[in-house]
Amino acid sequence: MPFLSLKFNLQKRVKLAQGLWMLYWLAVIVGIILFSLGIFFKIELRKRSEIMDNNESHLVPNLLILVGMLSCGLNAFGGKLCHDSLDPQKFSKMKPMLRPYMLLCCGFNALLLLLVLLCFLMQFAVYLTLAEGLKNAIRFYKDTDTPGRCFMKRTLDMTQIEFRCCGNNNFRDWFEVQWISNRYLDMSNDVVKDRVLSNVEGKYLMDSVPFSCCNPGSPRPCIQHHLTNNSAHYDYDHRTEELNIWNRGCRQAVFSYYSGIMNSIGALLIFTMVLEAGDMAGLKYLSTALETMADPENPECESEGWLLEKGFKETLADLLSKVKTFGRANQVEEGGASPDVAAT
User: Fold this and answer.
1) In the 8-state DSSP scheme, what is residue 246?
2) Which spans are transmembrane here (predicted)?
3) Do 9 and 127 sit in the same domain of this protein?
4) Cα 91 vs. chain centroid, distance in angstroms?
5) This model's pTM is above 0.85
6) Which tens digits make up the pLDDT trace of 29-75?
């Protein structure tokens, strides 16, 4: 007995074909959105490649672009199948393509599932890449004259301004590195000389942050130097007062931005999978309803459509038996080939 069988007359077949045609073109629009999101995500990764040590993975956006193109092509063809299905002559020409097309759709859904998993799993890799990249970006902030690092200062400043963040984990990361180049330090000044000599590594360290860490929404003028020295500022206590610089680290801020994009893409991909599954089920009903017409020349006659030709258990048992038969055939071939190999 067929699984989930339904009776169809001409009116129901026409409505099903029209509804499927609309769903397939909706899937084409979703494919265009996926393609656009892939390009957008790739551009966003490229834009901040410097703060990720140029080690960011483009696997997800590349697959997203591929999936978008495949979705447009497969669903446009599915729409044409539905449009031509009610014409007996056109349907007879399209009929041999139905099975390969359904297999392609199953493979496409498997690719969608893989991409959904990657959208969530790759977030961990993005987090680690950002952690290491931002650490190095802060270290190279001062190297504006070094080839390959000339724009690191600008990139990091723009990142801190755009994402309203400061440092890698927090603003104290700037206290641990020399972020002012030696060319801008007056080495004849005793204060500067003492600060450099007092450091084991000969670095000019200070409790200050770049201007891009300042919060423009603060009512007090930005205090970016001597942040931990209460006596350097009037009516100031760094332990109790809310500082007028950004407290959030850039790793958390940028990662939240990228994870938001990837979560949104994952949700859209899940919707696409559901849409594709609905299209496949509808197409199966439509094709079987057209094949079981008692008189193909008479469009008014009733027919029966189904998802599976046999019951669910019987179909599953047949599938398992085919897999076992295929496995045994491979074992026999390997066993038959081994004597020949031994003889040689």
Assistant:
1) -
2) 20-41, 62-81, 101-130, 255-275
3) yes
4) 38
5) no
6) 999 999 999 999 999 999 988 888 888 888 999 999 999 999 999 99
